[in-house]
Amino acid sequence: MYVYIHIPFCNCICSYCDFCKILYNNNYIDNYLSNLEKEIRSRYKGEIIKSIYIGGGTPSSLSLSELEQLFNIIKIFNIDKNYEFTIECNVDSLDIDKIKLFSRNKVNRISLGVQSFNDEVLSILNRSHTYKEVSNVINNLKDNNINNINIDLIYGVTNNIDIVKKDIDYFLSLDIPHISCYSLIIEDNTVLGINNYENIDEDIEYEMYKYIENKLESNSYVHYEISNYAKEGYYSIHNINYWNNGEYYGFGLGSVSYMDNYRITNTRNINKYNDGIYISNKEYENENIRMSNDMILGLRKLNGVSISNFYNKYKKDIKEVFDIEDLIKDKVLIIDNNNIYINKKYLYLSNEILIRFMIY
Ligand code: SF4
Predict the structure, then answer these.
(1) 14 C-alpha to center of ligand 1: Å?
(2) Does residue 350 register a pLDDT over 90?
(3) pLDDT for position 355
(4) 148 in a structural domain
(5) What's the average model confidence in pLDDT over 52-78?
(6) CATH number for the domain including 125?
(7) Which atom in ligand 1 lies closest to the alpha carbon of residue 12?
(8) Is 299 in contact with 225 (CB distance < 8 Å)?
(9) Is position 97 within any domain?
(10) Are the C-beta atoms of 252 and 36 separated by less than 8 Å?
(11) Rounded mean pLDDT of 209-216?
């Protein structure tokens, strides 16, 4: 089983952010952490946990003593010997004491929200850090035996492809094994959306996507999911479970769980959460929804969906459930031994392809 824990607090709010987050306020935190513990104790059934992912928000915005409280809560879980334990952090809130605390508590993967190394882009996104600060944090992590490090990068904030090229060069110089690259999406209820910030030219965005893919692949990073690249042995175990439509617990504000064919969504209202009202919605997913999700999530991976796993799960042949003959004939989908996947040439257009797998 897999566990996601949401820490919604952030030290400042980014202009593109549509996540479930609130500005750090230490009046909320004691109550939040004690409710988090209550929620876990009331729902966790004692399964062996293969991966814990603490996301946000910004988990590293918590103080040292608040983080210690969080690690005490995590002791509730029965943890597999070879588990992955990831914490999302921001550069400006990750000091050496927190890194040492992570290391003592067996955190073995860090995902750093960097987004860019360019001042103009960072100022549009309402973030600030320098290359030197990022590289210092990474050296401190490595010195404390945390080598499995990801950074998130956003491209397409401006039409200037040279910024993206430099960002990738900076990433490569850090010598870390994982990168998630997302194009900027302007959501309505964000500062960028409200200010009508314009999307960049689509052709330039595609050029950026191809540049990133080529450059990373020629430096031994494997493109293993639409937005994710890693050195062999460093794929995110936690996220692969999502893309396999596997079960997981989600604890904390706004988190989602998937188990026993139910998708359970927690409240995004901190006052309700801190009053002990954790769940806001619970929906049963029938077989058609489950099969669709297996395809829509699984085809995000470059190696796609296993035909035999699908058969073992549903006792049905993928090719009979989904109308994919034309996609296969046109080489949009490829069948290779036991796997069905999107032709890499069309991966960039995956949203238009994946929509065809909605059979509910
Ligand atoms: S740090 Fe992350 S969660 Fe917080 S505002 Fe920025 S993007 Fe959103």
Answers:
(1) 5
(2) no
(3) 85
(4) yes
(5) 97
(6) 3.20.20.70
(7) 5
(8) no
(9) yes
(10) yes
(11) 97
> Rounded distance, CA 53 to CA 88, Å?
8
Q: How many percent of the chain have pLDDT more than 70?
A: 100
Q: pLDDT-based confidence at 287, cuts 50/70/90?
A: very high
Task: Check pocket membership of 17 for ligand 1, CB cut-off 6 A.
Answer: yes
Instruction: Let me know: does 110 contact 141? Beta carbons within 8 Å.
Output: yes
59 lines ligand 1 (CB under 6 A): no
182 lines ligand 1 (CB under 6 A): no
Cα 154 to ligand 1 centroid, rounded to whole Å: 13
What is the pLDDT, as a whole number, of residue 359? 75
Nearest by Cα to 155 from 130, 134, 181, 131: 181
User: What pLDDT sits at residue 61?
Assistant: 97
How many domains, the chain? 1
Is 57's C-beta closer than 6 angstroms to any atom of ligand 1? Answer: yes
Atom 2 of ligand 1: nearest residue by CA position: 57
CA of 184 to the centre of ligand 1 (A): 14
The answer to whether the beta carbons of residues 57 and 20 sit under 8 Å apart is yes
* Residue 246, CB-side half-sphere exposure with 13 Å CA sphere: 17
Dihedral angle of Cα 125, 129, 132, 136, to the nearest 10 degrees: -110
Does residue 32 belong to any structural domain of this protein?
A: yes
Which residue puts its alpha carbon closest to atom 5 of ligand 1? 13
How far CA 341 is from CA of 93, 164, 227, 325, in Å, comes to 40, 28, 15, 13
- Predicted pLDDT at 262: 98
Q: How far apart are CA 90 and CA 9, in angstroms?
A: 12
Q: Establish if 343 belongs to a structural domain.
A: no
| Cα 307 to ligand 1 centre (Å) | 38
Q: What is the mean pLDDT of residues 290-316?
A: 96
User: What's the whole-number mean pLDDT along residues 97-116?
Assistant: 97
CB hemisphere CA count around 33 (13 angstroms)? 20
Continuous segment of H or E residues that includes residue 237: helix 237-243
DSSP state of 301: B
Q: Is ligand 1 within 6 A of the CB of residue 113?
A: yes
Q: Which of the four pLDDT bands, split at 50, 70 and 90, describes residue 303?
A: very high
Residue 92: which domain range? Answer: 2-242
